[in-house]
Amino acid sequence: MLPLWPARWLPLWPALLLACASPVTGVTRPAVPGIDSDPPDATGCDVAVTGSCAGYNVLLITLDTWPKFGPIGEDNLTHTPVIARYFAEATVVRGRSSAAWTSPSGIALGRGIAAADDIVTSFLPIVNEPIGHVEDSETTAYEWLSEYGDVRYITGNPTFLLATNAYQLDSYAEYADGGLAQAVTTLVPDEQALGGRPFFTHLHVGELHDPLRDYAGVCASQLDPLPRILADAGGTGMNALMIYLTVHWASYSTDEQTGILDWVRCLQGEEAAWVDEILAGLLHSLDSEGLLDRTLVAFSADHGEGFGTVPALVDYNGDGSTVGEFLFGHSNTLSPTLTTIPMAFWVRGGEPREVDVTLDVSQIWPTLLDTLSLPIPPAMTALPLSAADAGIKRGFVCSGETDAGVPLAPSFSVLDPGDNMLYTKHRDLGFQIYDLASDPWGSVDLAATVVVPTSVIDVVEEMEMEAPLVCVPRG
Length: 475
Prior knowledge:
Elements: H1 12-19, E1 57-63, H2 81-88, E2 91-96, H3 102-111, H4 141-145, E3 150-155, H5 158-163, E4 172-174, H6 180-183, H7 191-194, E5 199-205, H8 220-223, H9 229-233, H10 238-248, H11 254-288, E6 295-301, E7 310-311, E8 326-327, H12 336-339, E9 340-341, E10 344-346, E11 353-360, H13 364-371, E12 393-397, E13 411-416, E14 421-426, E15 430-435, H14 454-470
Parallel strand pairs: 1-5, 1-6, 2-11, 3-4, 3-5
Antiparallel strand pairs: 2-9, 2-10, 6-10, 7-8, 12-13, 13-14, 14-15
């Protein structure tokens, strides 16, 4: 486990957090580190150019359950003004997860292998033990990087820890939900202790997976006119709430649905703003230590959230049908709401731009290793941004399981980055087709008017043959 950072840093954090803008109090947020201060001469570090960032540090920040778009389609960056400023000054790509829940996404990120490409997409049921197909720790980014610098990994989601295989490290730590402020105090390294070696840090923020805190009490009033859904759901957390809403969504009136979405958006916004303030404190600390000038900062997520916008593929209410059930959480469908995620790479003095390419989460570490001029493990098959794959990207996820542990039919997705068309298929629903170029939220299914290309059908048939090998309960 990581030791707590020396006590000399602890007094700094309350001041930093109080200084950051609150979405409720309206306190003025201080200058964003590395952006509002005087910039250095233009850096040669370019995440799309092999070896251009040699010797740089890396800070990878992934937010759990952080879709590109929020409950009503708004850009989620509106809730995170500090992160938004970095995105505005960064190399931004279209981010995608080849899976729709934590474990397969974590496997893809940690190993640099797209989920379906290694027939590793899901594990059933979730158990607190090493996940199959991830025994060889040397094929993961974290053990590999420990040969080249100081590796630190900290997560608020133990499932993500297992999936990325980072539990193999001596330098990993978990924090309890809501403990992010204390956890980040371990992530500002001492340059003398580094001994001239770079640091490679991955912070996986778990709070947004379960955003039920109402920090300033501003969301409670929005719940008053609605049914007592928290009490009805058992009040056991966001997962229980999401399942409850999935089962009962069709029973609410349009006004009630709008109110629930507003309430969830408010809760997520409050949580995201709180996370944003803490990340601002972390970046300020790196800046004050003179480390931010030589640090490549990457932002992304593991997957999105349903928000009642996509049909559920599992019979949650047990009536023998999924009619009227709309997924409010995640895990069992590969619609754009679950697979479209933010992704950006920032370096101080870099040129802000949007790159017309789609990167899967599996391509994050190959991209970072490539631009750092570090060798990429042979088992990492995902391509870096400098050699971005223009070919078809694919993924699939097991839909779920019955109470008896019998797996249900999997979902498949095929993305053609050439025209940004997403094809998803499920046994009961057939193909669903989305034009992500004009409809990134995935609100219009084009299956009735668009013909599925033969190349896509071939890939799906290949995945259908592979699926029985992975969509089985694991003991």
